[in-house]
Write a structure and sequence with these properties.
Blueprint lengths: L2 H4 L3 E6 L6 E9 L3 H10 L9 E2 L1 E2 L7 E2 L4 E5 L6 H24 L9 E9 L6 H21 L3 H9 L13
Parallel strand pairs: 6-7
Antiparallel strand pairs: 1-2, 2-7, 3-6, 4-5
Length: about 180
């Protein structure tokens, strides 16, 4: 798909089940746009505990390759422990890369330097199974990209509008 047509499209996705479930938010951008500039600024502005990385893959550091399209991963939760950090920067990074590559294989994204992907990631600090976390990150990322590119079915959007007075969220404790 044309990167300019994707610029600024956003979505979210969930994969897996707790404690190894992964939630992502995705922003797509076209190189040279204000959206891409914002993504680059986020990439260049790490803060303590929140380190944006350019996803790279390979069996060892000397053989790292940049994922195409270039994908920036940001954690949206503080790293809780060395084991949690390994899951975020290992299993989640690989799962996100696989989800992006699934989208490329399905023709949703082009594997080029014109398209940029930002993935903001949440992984609970009690996650432990790297295989399950990797699979969850892949499912969440692929689903979020698909929704960002294709949109939501009109019936789902209409259902939300019709039930607007009863929509909820697990963190909402109101009446």
């Amino acid at each position: 798909m044309d990167p300019q047509a994707l610029d600024g499209r956003t979505s979210q996705g969930w994969g897996g089940t707790p404690p190894d479930g992964v939630h992502v938010n995705v922003v797509l951008a076209a190189r040279g746009t204000p959206t891409a500039a914002s993504m680059t600024s986020a990439f260049a502005s790490p803060t303590a505990g929140f380190t944006p990385i350019l996803i790279s893959l390979g069996p060892d550091q000397p053989s790292y390759e940049t994922l195409q399209p270039p994908t920036i991963m940001l954690n949206k939760m503080a790293i809780a422990s060395p084991a949690h950090e390994a899951l975020v920067f290992g299993a989640c990074q690989v799962g996100i890369a696989r989800g992006v590559l699934d989208a490329v294989a399905q023709g949703l994204l082009c594997a080029d330097q014109e398209t940029l992907v930002l993935v903001s990631l949440w992984l609970g600090d009690d996650a432990a199974d790297s295989g399950a976390v990797c699979a969850a990150a892949r499912v969440a990322t692929a689903a979020a990209i698909r929704e960002a590119v294709e949109g939501r079915p009109e019936s789902e959007v209409r259902r939300l509008v019709e039930h607007r007075d009863t929509v909820t969220h697990p963190f909402y404790k109101g009446g």
